[in-house]
């Protein structure tokens, strides 16, 4: 690969452009820097901070909903005592990762990528970014494009249309846009929703509100887990973080995968056990059947994790309550329900979900042809049919996100090694079975998935085209399996052209 020798502030041509400085983009940067030290790369980040989700969301109690020894990177052991960590602790971990590995010099903040076009004749991408400070365009070129943009819209969350919302005299807040100055001390708060955000907000706010109510249309599975893992903390003390990390990580992966498989193979049994776990933590005559018994089977949607049963403790103490009903309309003083009950509120929080967005709203084109994402098929859940020199990272929905990101980054580096060793300039997945059934790339019944999945690439049902949320299968395919197969078309690298003086970023 060509190595650019000009300074970072002048360089606009790279071997790899990484889009997004969240947990996926930082992981990709680490793998390139350590596995391929001769590869030039830059990370374009639209905002002014690393961290992605973890720097964007500022609502009370924001925390991981996966255990941190597996949500953290494989290459950097998680050393904090809490296995379920608060957002600011995760941000500290990401800042440490960037600093310890010299990644900051590769990150360019305030560059929001709008479009990217691949030229087969040049064997390169031309990427157009808008600079947040000036609004001016900046052009970059790269041999490969790596997208670490996640799968939801950073600019807007999802809020249903509520009748009468303009009549409400209080404040309506979406967790994705939490005001820094919101004072809810002594206030009556209603949180609309029953997902991970709602079950985080309610216990986190309960001590300061006069009362907080979680208003849900239907219940979710809520699973209590320890905030600290005694086994992990003991092992870290005895063996040291590096040696303990491998054991803890393997144990947590096996446990998470075991629970998921049990839910799929014996849904009725797991449903009984999960609801019994909730019943055990609430007052004797609490209406668990109404408020904590979902209509769907476990893991058709994500399980909502609550550390140390904090939600159940807030309910048991009388600081919080759950109401299961439908909203008729907002009123000047709260929410009128279809049952006729009215919930008084000073603040209403719409924890009603995310808006899914494929590939960060970046318009892709190949040789002047716009790429219509639903027409493409994911290859090894990391590349797209008909799109050369392109890799994306989307993590798991049923286990820690970062486990998949690590595997994708490893395989990407192996792919680059293979191409260099064989003199290849481009690689393109080509769908070799047009009659193969194509299915949604994410198979979950959650509302946010069902609303947005039609915009995304599809998955196949056989071979490397399948997308399975199964870590052990991806280890076999991405870490241990061969790079080349019949679905990939490689072309030779073009002769090197003497480097010209790089253009300054416009």
UniProtKB/TrEMBL annotation:
Transmembrane region(s): none
Presence of the UniProt keyword Metal-binding in the record: no
Gene3D superfamilies recorded: FAD/NAD(P)-binding domain (3.50.50.60)
Keyword Iron part of the UniProt annotation: no
Organism listed in the record: Rhodococcus olei
One Pfam family hit: NAD_binding_8
Cofactor: FAD
Domain of life: Bacteria
Similarity comment text for this entry: Belongs to the FAD-binding monooxygenase family.
Signal peptide coordinates: none
Keywords in alphabetical order: FAD, Flavoprotein, Monooxygenase, Oxidoreductase
Protein name listed in UniProt: NAD(P)/FAD-dependent oxidoreductase
